[in-house]
Structures are given as C-alpha cells and as structure tokens.
Description:
The protein is α/β, with parallel strands linked by helices. Helix content is 47%, strand content 7%. The protein contains 21 helices and eight strands. It has helices at 5-12, 14-22, 54-60, 105-116, 148-153, 162-181, 229-234, 239-255, 261-269, 273-276, 287-300, 311-318, 329-333, 352-358, 362-372, 390-407, 411-424, 430-442, 446-459, 464-476, 480-500, and strands at 50-51, 80-85, 91-96, 123-124, 126-132, 135-141, 195-197, 203-206. Strands 1-5-6-3-2 form a five-stranded mixed β-sheet, sandwiched between helices. The protein has a three-stranded mixed β-sheet with strand order 4-8-7, covered by helices on one side.
Amino acid sequence: MGCCVSSFLSETHPEKLQQHNQHNQNSSYEHGPPSSVDAEGGPGGVPLFSEFSLADLKAATNNFSSDFIVSESGEKAPNLVYKGRLQNRRWIAVKKFTKMAWPNPKQFAEEAWGVGKLRHRRLANLIGYCCDGDERLLVAEYMLNDTLAKHLFHWENQTIDWAMRLRVALYIAEALVYCSSEGRPLYHDLNAYRVLFDEDGDPRLSCFGLMKNSRDGKSYSTNLAYTPPEYLRNGRVTSESVIFSFGTVLLDLLSGKHIPPSHALDMIRGKNILLLMDSHLEGNFSTEEGTVLVGLASRCLQYEPRERPNPKDLVTTLAPLQTKPEVPSYVMLGIPKHEEAPPTLPQHPLSPMGEACSRMDLTAIHQILVMTHYRDDEGTNELSFQEWTQQMRDMLEARKRGDFAFRDKDFKTAIDCYTQFIDVGTMISPTVYARRSLCHLLCDQPDAALRDAMQAQCVYPDWPTAFYMQAVALAKLNMDKDGADMLNEAAGLEEKRQKGGRAS
Length: 504
C-alpha cells in the first residue's frame, strides 16, 4: 500500500497540511491554499486537494499493476484509470495520462488545482495530482459500486429500475448545475462511464471529465457518432455541448443500450417511444414520466446549440419526476449497503514483535528494536569512498548518540539525535525511522509516529516492522479497524519472509 504523508495530514489535521507542503522540497509550484472541504463531501469528509509523489501512487496501485485497472472504456480511452489504496487506507482512483498529453507540468498543475477546488456530494471529487518527470496523474475519490455503463449494459443480477434511472438523471443534472455555478461549465465526454456509484449507491459525476484529456483540448474518446455536431465542425467543447452529451446519457437511461442520437431522434419523431424504451423494464415505468424524459432528451439533442436547455432547466424538469425520495439508492440498485467491517482477528501467526504490537506493549517493542539493532538496513544504502566526508562522520555520530539515548530510554534526546541524522539526508535508514516512531509513541505523539512508520515503509516497502509500527500508531489514533488490518498485513509479510525471503 502507499505512503503519503500529505494525504494523511489532509484527512486528520488539515491545519498542518499547508505547513507540511511548505517544507516539501519536491514541489515545483506555488499555489494558493487548498479550498475548504464542503460539508456535503461524503462519509468521513473529502481530503483537501494536495500534491502526491509518484512513489505514493506507485505503492497505492502496486506499481500501476494491470490488475488494478478499473477503466471500462477499453481501447477507446486515451488514458487509464487505476484503483489504489493509500497508507491511511483510503481508496482512490488514479487517472494516468499519456506521456505527452500535457508536456508542460505547470499547465497540468494549474488545470488540476482548478478542478480540485470543487467539492460537492454529486461529484466523485478530485483530491490530488502528481507531476513527476513525464508522468501526469490525477487522484480522485474511489467509487465502490461501478459505473452506470456497468449497471445498464452489463448487469448480472438486475437491471436498474425506473425510479433509480430518474434519480441518476437528476443527480447528474445537479452536478452540472454546481459545476456551472463554480465557473467550470465544460465537461468533456459525458457518458455512462463517467457516472459512478458511491458506497451508498448514490450516482456521482466523475471529476475526471472536468479536465481536458490534453492541453490541446481533444476531448472526446467515445464513438464520434455520439459527439455534439458542433464538436465535429470545429473540435471545440462548449457548455451547450455538455447538454448534448447529457442527452445521450438520457437515451442510455431510457433504452438500456447505446443508441446513436440520430437514430433515436428518428424514433422519437416517428412517435415510436415504446420501441425506444428498455424492454427489461417490462412496462414497469410511467408512460407520462417516460414521455417527459424523451422530450427532454430530444431538446438536449437539438442540432443547434442555442436550442438546447441549460443545466437549471434540466433540474427543473427532472425534480418533479422523483417518486421514491425516501428509498435509499443502494436498495433501488439491489446492492448491499457498504458497512465498515469490524476489526479483524489476526489471520497469520504472530511473532514476538506482532504479539507486542497487538498488545500495544511499547516496552516489549522497545526491547525488540534494541535487540534487532540495524540488521534490516543491510542493502538499503551503499556509500562510496568519496561520500565518506566529515559531514558523514558527524551524521553517523548523531545516530550513535541517538542509539545510546534510545537504549537508555531517553526518548526525547533520541528524537533530537535521530532527527539530526535524518535531516542530513545522505544516508536513509528504515531502522532510524522505526526507532524514532517508537520514541514518538512513548512521548504521546501518535501522528508523528505514524508519519515515521510510513517513511520507513517508503525506504523499505516490504519491511514488516514498518507495518507493525503503523499498526500501533493507528491504534493509538483510535483507528482500530485500520490498525488491525495493518497488523494482519505485517504478520503476512513476516510469515512470507520467514518461509523464503530476507529475514525481518
């Protein structure tokens, strides 16, 4: 899983995020302070928008493994979307752009920050970005329950009932109204793959469509038969183009399949509305409501942009059609409600270190770390003779003083000495981070302890001790479920290494 100090800060201590970013030497840009979190941001709150490192996102997505790809657009999409999980256990969606889509990193960052200011319950909100070399990545909230395309076109258990389809149309219209009111009226390539369902089954509009696919504005990746006619003429997206694309989503909701707008309009003009309707609804819909929705789709799909409704018109038309406002979305979708599972019992046999961590026995953990010394640092640093400078000797002397203080349980002095060692930066030691993490715990500083344990994992990604220390810090922060999960992960890594790898 990934190591991301800035995302952890943004969720637990927003007031510390700006201070952290000021000290982040990897950041190439200066921006205003991140926007405040909207009260409607969803369960647990939406993190403040921030910059991620490439290492964070590689770790979260298992080095962008093909197993983590969640984009359903297939070869039509010019870029991929991965799911991932950060060190703080938050699930994310990561959009990876093609190498030269945004050659200028400053342009990409500015565009991302513009979208990142938006916060609304009808959006799958953007929470960060990454510019690193040729990499351009966006990071958003991850929606657990798939896309509208999956539920409409590839359903396995049940199709979407009529009332839910009306709710989808209204919620996406509300998202468009919000975006327009915030000065972001252009949405690129609105389609059924851009509509996502969250943990409660509520439909949300993906924030990825609020940002162009590239600096030159090539915005449509779907079949050109479904793109607005003005885009085919001049290659530009306007706010009216978004309404045309919304009309194609209405056709999807009506028919349960992807119908070219020209074909659908011919059916509408021929009064063949029943032929347009999804046969899987089996007549379980209101003809009057169907007629209103067909009429709205027809208006959205007008050839002349000026003849299409605006986003507020969409909401005005769709709001009166909502007949089951009291029924939760997950019930109408026929999916289980997402519940946070209780802390799990250990799934792997626990070593002495694991037992000490499960008991939160800091004295026992201290004794184990003293006994282990630096054997796990082997291979994490190779220093040339030229690097053996006075600065290097001073740094190692600081570590030595820290080790004496750590052994003698003078934890505040140990923190100071280890910090001197770390700040020089010539040599990176996972053991020092683990030891300083324990010192922070013993000084009642669980936030700092978690950050150090995460840094230990960054240096040595499969080191069980780094995971164990995170488990204890999370438990100290009253994140019991996350702590238990991390303890299991640590025990699994330790068991694997004992069976055939480097000893932990």
